[in-house]
Structure formats: structure tokens, C-alpha cells
């Protein structure tokens, strides 16, 4: 990877803006086809929302980390790069904390709720699976009911189906707190169905053993790191693109220390970051309107490392859920071959807003107290504690991904991937299958590269 000391002007066939999984996949596909590329990355590292780091002696996956069985593009890339995977620890009982605050142990997929609540959850899950089966994740706006489903919130639709509050909370958090990381009244039923369709079904999405199946030995950031190594000096770090000039003749990307003239560009950033670039001329009106209806969610990923995985001694898998807790879900996140035990918990949407009104010490206390409700008092005393706060990351602005507000998906979803002159767009936020996952980023990187190659060869 290159570091620049003076302003440099260079020329390539294609300039890629962003060195996450989407941008690096696109760049590698283009290079393999014989085109020259330059990848400009604002950060001092590659990987985007994938980031593995050592904190106080513990290796932590600060960003994305899991691989599920349906993620064929990611699995192909992992295999092709020679990386190994291992299964998430899941032996023993899971834990659920209900509305009374009582902890219950259970096995299987269904939470230990009252029989009437279980019946409601089961019936609505079947109905949602049937609705999701009708959704094409690449074009959910094409469904005959798209406008109707996009103009009612996820929360409101669920509450129309039942007055069982516990059932609603458990059904809602799968796509709300857990995935889109927004309050469930702020996004639509259609957006929720898309989230489920991207994983194959609503049942897949709520099945932790499916959606959080495996991890990569050494961390998932190795995928972009190894992809960048193949590109060598064509990856330029610390180069935020400030201006992108474009016309039918090509593009010129101007960063802090260099500019690149190229025949085409791939903007491989989350849509919420497009406004950090001055497009000359401006993007079309449709693009400007669309981006006013897209925003990131907000989640804190909490890492708590202990001298041993003590919960296993209690016969617990480490898997824990509650729509009533500050940490709405948590898992055994112990690294491959590590004698110490790691728990990862998630604090999402309104809960995340609320704990950030506290001091760092008060916030840590509140979060660890929540974990102790699942695992007991030993959870209060980790040897390493760290919070991944992606909302404060200058070049991310939230997590896990961008989604539309109420009514935005059916109005503007079809425009997300639309090229603008010689500019293509690629990131996990606009994927169908693999939406907001690394798998989706790889798929979108491949798609952008294939589109450019088709244009070049026509």
C-alpha cells in the first residue's frame, strides 16, 4: 500500500473510492480483467466496517465478524484467500430475561414465554415467512403491496396483528434492535421484510445458530487485508476524496494528497457518506432526494473478556436474549484457541442513545449489570472491557448499515445502484442477498466491476 508525501497526479482505468470489502472486491475483479486501478481510502487502514484490533492484550473484532451458511460470496472469498473458519460456541442452554426481570434457561429457537405468547410468535413467524417468500431482495419495491407495506411502521404492523406486547417485542427486535438498529417505529414493514429476505427467510434471521454461525480464525478483517495485499501499491491510505469531477469522458478524483484521472469510478462507501464528496457537476436531483431518506442505525458492540469462559461451567452456551434489557442480546465470542472467555453484547437504538448520556464509567456499570442478569455476578468483573462505538467513527457514522425511513424504500430503492455517468456505486447497504453484511458488499463489488467491464467492452 502506498503513502504519499507530495501531491501526486496519476491516471488509471478505474478509480475506486473506499477500501472496504466492496471496493477491494471491485478493484481485484477489474485488475484480473486487465484494467488498471487505484483505490483511495480515507482511513489509515483497509476494511471499512471490518476491523480487528488488539485492545489491552485481547484480540477483538470491533466490526463485523460472523459468516452464515447462505453467504456464498463471502464463503467463496474466504476459501479463495485460504482462510479458516470455526463455529461459534453454542453448547448448553440459552438465556432469556422476560418482562418481570426473571432469567430463564432454554434450548431450541423459541423463547421460554407463556404458551399463548408462544402461539402468537409462531403464527406470526409463519405468516412473515410467507410474506418474505414473495419478496425479491434485489427489488422489494416491485412487490404489488410494496407501497402499502412501506408506509406502515414495523411496530405498528405487528401491533395490528396482536395485543400481546411480549410477542410484539420479541418479533420486532429481530429486525429492529438486532439488525437495522433503529427503533421499530422509524422504519417500515417493507424494510423489515427486505432485511429478512436478504437472509432467505424471517426464520433464518431470528435463528442465531444460522445467522451467527461461524467466525474466521484471526478475524474477518483479514478478508479486506488480503484483498488489498493483492493490489499492492494501488491502494492509497489516508486519502479522503474531497471532489469527484465527472463527465461522459471520465472522472477525476481529488483527494488530500493526490488526484486520479480514470475512465470510470466506483464509489464504495455507505450512502450516508456521499455528502462528504463534492460531485462536479452535482449528482442528479433524484440522488439528492434519495439520500435525504437514508440513515445509519446505531449500536454499541460491547466486548467483555474474562480469565475463563465461566458461563460454560454453568452449562450455558453464552447465547442470551431480552427485549427488556440494556444489552438486548449477547453471545460467547471466545477467540479460536483462547483460554480466556469473551462475551459480546449489543446495545442498540434508543438504549444506545440513553447510555451515551452517562459518563463512561456509569455506562460500563450499566452495561455490565445487564450482562450479569444473563450470566450472574461474575460478568461484572471482566479483565478487558471495550465498546465499539461506530457512531463516532468519522468515516462510518453509525452501524450496522444504512436503511430507508418510512416510505423511502419503495420510492427510491430502485435508484440506489443506478449509475451516474461513469460512476458506479457499491456497498453492503445496497445489496439484496447479504444486505448489510460482508457477503452483500462482495456481491455489490462484483456487480459494479462487471458493469464497468461490460461498458468498456461494448
Automatic annotation (TrEMBL):
Annotated keywords: Oxidoreductase
Enzyme Commission identifier(s): 1.-.-.-
A molecular function GO annotation: oxidoreductase activity
Domain Amine oxidase: 22-453
Record flagged with keyword Cytoplasm: no
Pfam families recorded: Amino_oxidase
Presence of the UniProt keyword Oxidoreductase in the record: yes
Requisite cofactors: FAD
Family to which the UniProt record says this protein belongs: Belongs to the flavin monoamine oxidase family.
Protein name, as recorded: NAD(P)/FAD-dependent oxidoreductase
Native source organism of the sequence: Microbacterium dauci
Lineage: Bacteria, Bacillati, Actinomycetota, Actinomycetes, Micrococcales
Amino acid at each position: 500500500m502506498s503513502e504519499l508525501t507530495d501531491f501526486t497526479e496519476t491516471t488509471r482505468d478505474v478509480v475506486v473510492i473506499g477500501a472496504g470489502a466492496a471496493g477491494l472486491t471491485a478493484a481485484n475483479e477489474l485488475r484480473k480483467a486487465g484494467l488498471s486501478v487505484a483505490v483511495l481510502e480515507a482511513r489509515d487502514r483497509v476494511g471499512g466496517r471490518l476491523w480487528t484490533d488488539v485492545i489491552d492484550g485481547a484480540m477483538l473484532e470491533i466490526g463485523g465478524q460472523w459468516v452464515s451458511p447462505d453467504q456464498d460470496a463471502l464463503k467463496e472469498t474466504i476459501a479463495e484467500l485460504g482462510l479458516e473458519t470455526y463455529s461459534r460456541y453454542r453448547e448448553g442452554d440459552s438465556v432469556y430475561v422476560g418482562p418481570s426481570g426473571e432469567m430463564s434457561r432454554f434450548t431450541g429457537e423459541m423463547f421460554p414465554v407463556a404458551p399463548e405468547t408462544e402461539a402468537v410468535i409462531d403464527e406470526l413467524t409463519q405468516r412473515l415467512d410467507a410474506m418474505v417468500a414473495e419478496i425479491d431482495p434485489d427489488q422489494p419495491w416491485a412487490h404489488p403491496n410494496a407501497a402499502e407495506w412501506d408506509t406502515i411502521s414495523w411496530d405498528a404492523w405487528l401491533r395490528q396483528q396482536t395485543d400481546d406486547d411480549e410477542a410484539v417485542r420479541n418479533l420486532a427486535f429481530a429486525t429492529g434492535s438486532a439488525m437495522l438498529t433503529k427503533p421499530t417505529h422509524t422504519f417500515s414493514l417493507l424494510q423489515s421484510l427486505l432485511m429478512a429476505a436478504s437472509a432467505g427467510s424471517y426464520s433464518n434471521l431470528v435463528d442465531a445458530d444460522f445467522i451467527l454461525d461461524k467466525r474466521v480464525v484471526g478475524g474477518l478483517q483479514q478478508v479486506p487485508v488480503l484483498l488489498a495485499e493483492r493490489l499492492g501499491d494501488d491502494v492509497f491510505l489516508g486519502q479522503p476524496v474531497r471532489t469527484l469531477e465527472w463527465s461522459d469522458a471520465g472522472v477525476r478524483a481529488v483527494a488530500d494528497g493526490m488526484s486520479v484521472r480514470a475512465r470510470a469510478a466506483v464509489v464504495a462507501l455507505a450512502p450516508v457518506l456521499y455528502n462528504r464528496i463534492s460531485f462536479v457537476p452535482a449528482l442528479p436531483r433524484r440522488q439528492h432526494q434519495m439520500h435525504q431518506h437514508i440513515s445509519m442505525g446505531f449500536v454499541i458492540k460491547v466486548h467483555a473478556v474474562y480469565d475463563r469462559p465461566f458461563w460454560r461451567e454453568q452449562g450455558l452456551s453464552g447465547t442470551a436474549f431480552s427485549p427488556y434489557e440494556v444489552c438486548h442480546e449477547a453471545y460467547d465470542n471466545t477467540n479460536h484457541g483462547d483460554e480466556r472467555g469473551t462475551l459480546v453484547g449489543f446495545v442498540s437504538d434508543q438504549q444506545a442513545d440513553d447510555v451515551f448520556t452517562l459518563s463512561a464509567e456509569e455506562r460500563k456499570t450499566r452495561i455490565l449489570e445487564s450482562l450479569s442478569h444473563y450470566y450472574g455476578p461474575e460478568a461484572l468483573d471482566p479483565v478487558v472491557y471495550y465498546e465499539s462505538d461506530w457512531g463516532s467513527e468519522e468515516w462510518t457514522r453509525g452501524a450496522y448499515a444504512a436503511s430507508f425511513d418510512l416510505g423511502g424504500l419503495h420510492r427510491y430503492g430502485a435508484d440506489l445502484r443506478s449509475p451516474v455517468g461513469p460512476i458506479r456505486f457499491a456497498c453492503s447497504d445496497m445489496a439484496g442477498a447479504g444486505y448489510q453484511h460482508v457477503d452483500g458488499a462482495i456481491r455489490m463489488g462484483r456487480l459494479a466491476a462487471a458493469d464497468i467491464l461490460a461498458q468498456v467492452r461494448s
